[in-house]
Amino acid sequence: MVKVAIVGLGFMGKMHLGIYLNKLQDVKVTAICDENINSLNIKNLASKGNIKISEGVVDLSGIEKYKNYELMLKNGGFDFVDICLPTFLHKNAIIKALEANYHVFCEKPLALTLEEGNKIMEKVKETGKLFAVGQCLRYWPAYSAIKKLIDKGKYGKVSYAEFARFSATPEWAWKSWLLDNNKSGNAALDLHIHDVDMVLYLFGRPKSVRSAGVFWQNESIAHITTIYRYNDKLVSSTGGWICTKSYGFNMRAFYILKEATIELDFSKSPIVNIFPNKGKPYALTLAEDDGYYYELKDFVKSIAKGRLSGIVNVETAFESLEVCLSEIDSAKTKKEIFL
Hints:
The protein is an alpha/beta fold. It folds into 2 domains: 2-135 and 295-311, Rossmann fold (3-Layer(aba) Sandwich), CATH 3.40.50; 137-287 and 319-338, Dihydrodipicolinate Reductase, domain 2 (2-Layer Sandwich). Helices cover 32% and strands 28% of the residues. The protein has a 9-stranded mixed β-sheet with strand order 16-15-14-13-9-12-11-10-17. Helix 8 (193-203) packs across helix 10. It starts with a strand and ends with a strand.
């Protein structure tokens, strides 16, 4: 049985907690840590210490609860730490866990800067512990199914691909940290990086990026659009959180291959539709659950086996950070950035 400690019980921390408790077998949550741990109790419930998560209400009795991260690491009783803290806290939390001899799963992005990312990467290599970042699109059934089609070459090579995610402004975050560029990197680094990572996963490293952005206060980017330079295809992505509250959230992708056009759109049902040159259009049958479930399932299995699956590692996380920061630089300088 693999044992996990979760640090940070905001939106994503509760999401992970629900997956561990309700969906995954062979994993046990033994500790949780949050500076507001005492205020997480839900009143008028039979069991003291219950918490409301995406799957309903769960009983936290039997799980050690901490406000102090260092104390949790010292007391132990788990195999890995799942870090769901705000991005500006990632580096220190990751390094402390690695130095305490624990494997680490951390929410995306890896860090705020390349300097922080390099320090994390060095510590991962130094300790030899298993480490992964929540690059969840690599596991999301809609995206991974299309990658399999592309890799198999069933419809020939890709000539054009575009990726998009649109969101209302995330005003719900703890102490509004997502809207603080110095803590989150704003929409470019927190939201758009998902599509940056998918571009890299599908097509490898581009020769250059050229970006433009919608800027908020302090020159932070609330929406960004990028063209990625490849020799044999045109690839673009756009994303941000300047939509109205009533819009909510949606993610899309569109691919033109030699023998088919593929549309992915989470506002439609079915989500993925194939339009081949020969034959009738059809929808892909997708696996149930989402990328959050499959990425955590993969990491738990990796710990049990003692090795990563190879879908995500510290190098892929660093490269996504590097390319995304280059896009931000391009948008600010209005110049093409060569990688």
